[in-house]
């Protein structure tokens, strides 16, 4: 459930452990509690896991269902969030799913999940209030710009030039405000990752598909190849799927052109010709299967960017729900299949889990020699049919009890700085690390007992490894090694 205090009051809950210290800050600074700056300070200092209406574990609320499950590639690198009454804004919801990759991808995904909404809120408040940009989120434009900075400058210019008289009539003011806020928040988030002291983002990163719903306005910010799909009714009452985002992969002409201009390379491997990847100019690495992402700073000078595509949709009474999911879902299920599965779920609270379980079955059927990918799903329901809502996942077993939106528990993630020291795989095969890096602190990353048994199919190449590091092939070296073996024989 969302918090009950109003956007005008901006006051902490009476039961909040930080309420007394917040009152002291109010008295010492002599700032009005309802001011934008004091609101930003409150949300920045409030423990995230104690914020009412913020869900990041498997579970559900009156308007959303969340579920994530670890695949067979190692640590679950997916993360998700639903935040009702987003930063005390009534009738406003923030949702997002994040798909990490690389040796520290799980840490990057969780960091973005926790920090990006706060940065978006800060820039949104600044844009609405017209105050000066805070020092900590100021943008340093001195010096030469790399491809990332040029792309952001271009996006900022495009955003400004689009606000003419004709465009203003077409798009509501909230879209223009949030578009600029999304662009700035994503830029600041990526810069923070670059200087993070405990997370190495050189060859690690994450996607992000996020949305803000306020009333009938839906604004989406997307980076990477996770996806948002809308389930809506046509005139004949048939349920159809409308894709709200574009999978930002290197095979898109505009993405490939930008990467080539920055001296990056785009090509697919022979054993997976359908998967275009981004490579360094003079080295066969890292082979990133997306054109935009947070982190991955080894490629940021060669065409990879974290600039989001921001889009808008005006919701109608025909629109029923939005599904945000990582590519572990979309690799094996079509948009229509996803919409039908969610609509057929016996309860809204079980919709996300039903979708993940269907995807796992599809992985095993369609790609029997591939390892199932991590899956994360957020189902946001757009109408208020409370008869079909259960506020917690009643199907969760006793070992995997999850908090409802009214009761959050600390999941122990905030100080997790452990991670593998280096990329552990080479070539196209990923070693079977099941359980070796399991994060026991995350309840949602546990696998049900019936799914924990290793499937008996052949161990094979993952259909899509997001990030590869391939060794260079040296024919002379290989010939000498082969000759040496023959001599010993």
UniProtKB/TrEMBL annotation:
Lineage: Eukaryota, Viridiplantae, Streptophyta, Embryophyta, Tracheophyta
Amino acid composition bias (Basic residues), ranges on this chain: 22-33
Cofactor names: Mn(2+); Mg(2+)
InterPro entries, per the entry: PP2C (IPR015655), PPM-type-like_dom_sf (IPR036457), PPM-type_phosphatase-like_dom (IPR001932)
Transmembrane segments: none
Segments of skewed composition (Basic and acidic residues): 157-170
Record's keyword terms, sorted: Hydrolase, Magnesium, Manganese, Metal-binding, Protein phosphatase
Stretches the record annotates as Disordered: 1-33, 148-170, 393-451, 470-489
Protein name, as recorded: protein-serine/threonine phosphatase
Domain PPM-type phosphatase positions: 63-382
Gene3D superfamilies noted in UniProt: PPM-type phosphatase domain
GO molecular function, one term: metal ion binding
Compositional bias ranges of the Low complexity kind: 9-21
Keyword Membrane: no
Family to which this protein belongs: Belongs to the PP2C family.
Enzyme class, UniProt record, top EC level: hydrolase
Regions of compositional bias (Polar residues) in chain numbering: 393-410
Catalytic activity: O-phospho-L-seryl-[protein] + H2O = L-seryl-[protein] + phosphate; O-phospho-L-threonyl-[protein] + H2O = L-threonyl-[protein] + phosphate
Record carries keyword Magnesium: yes
EC number from the UniProt entry: 3.1.3.16
Pfam (any one): PP2C
């Amino acid at each position: 459930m969302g918090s009950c205090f109003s956007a005008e009051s901006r006051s902490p809950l009476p039961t909040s452990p930080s309420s007394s210290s917040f009152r002291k800050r109010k008295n010492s600074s002599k700032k009005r509690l309802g001011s934008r700056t004091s609101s930003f300070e409150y949300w920045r200092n409030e423990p995230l896991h104690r914020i009412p209406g913020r869900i990041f574990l498997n579970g559900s609320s009156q308007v959303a269902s969340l579920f994530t499950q670890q695949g067979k590639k190692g640590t679950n690198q997916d993360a998700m969030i639903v935040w009702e009454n987003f930063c005390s804004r009534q009738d406003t919801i923030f949702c997002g799913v994040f798909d990490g990759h690389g040796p520290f991808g799980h840490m990057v995904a969780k960091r973005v999940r926790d920090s990006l909404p706060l940065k978006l809120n800060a820039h949104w408040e600044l844009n609405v209030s017209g105050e000066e940009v805070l020092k900590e989120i100021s943008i340093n434009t001195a010096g030469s710009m790399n491809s990332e900075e040029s792309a952001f400058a271009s996006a900022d210019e495009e955003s400004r030039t689009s606000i003419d008289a004709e465009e203003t009539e077409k798009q509501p003011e909230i879209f223009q405000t949030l578009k600029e806020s999304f662009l700035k928040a994503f830029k600041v988030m990526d810069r923070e990752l670059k200087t993070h002291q405990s997370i190495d983002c050189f060859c690690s990163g994450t996607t992000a598909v996020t949305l803000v719903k306020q009333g009938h306005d839906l604004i989406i910010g997307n980076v990477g190849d996770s996806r948002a799909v809308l389930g809506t009714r046509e005139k004949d009452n048939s349920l159809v799927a409308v894709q709200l985002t574009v999978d930002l992969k290197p095979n898109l002409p505009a993405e490939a052109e930008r990467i080539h201009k920055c001296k990056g390379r785009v090509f697919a491997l022979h054993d997976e010709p359908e998967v275009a990847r981004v490579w360094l100019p003079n080295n066969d690495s890292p082979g990133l299967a997306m054109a935009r992402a947070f982190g991955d700073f080894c490629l940021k000078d060669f065409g990879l960017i974290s600039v989001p595509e921001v889009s808008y949709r005006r919701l109608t009474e025909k629109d029923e729900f939005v599904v945000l999911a990582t590519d572990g879902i979309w690799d094996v299920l079509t948009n229509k299949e996803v919409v039908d599965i969610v609509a057929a779920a016996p309860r809204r609270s079980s919709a996300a889990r039903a979708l993940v379980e269907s995807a796992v079955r599809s992985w095993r059927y369609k790609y029997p020699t591939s390892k199932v990918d991590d899956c994360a799903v957020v189902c946001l329901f757009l109408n208020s049919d409370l008869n079909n809502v259960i506020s917690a996942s009643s199907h969760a077993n006793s070992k995997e009890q999850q908090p409802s939106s009214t009761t959050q528990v600390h999941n122990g993630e905030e100080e997790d700085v452990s991670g593998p020291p280096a990329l552990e795989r080479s070539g196209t095969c990923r070693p079977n690390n099941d359980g070796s890096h399991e994060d026991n602190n995350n309840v949602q990353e546990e696998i049900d007992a019936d799914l924990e048994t290793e499937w008996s199919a052949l161990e094979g190449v993952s259909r899509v490894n997001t990030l590869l590091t391939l060794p260079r092939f040296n024919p002379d070296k290989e010939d000498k090694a082969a000759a040496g073996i023959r001599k010993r024989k």
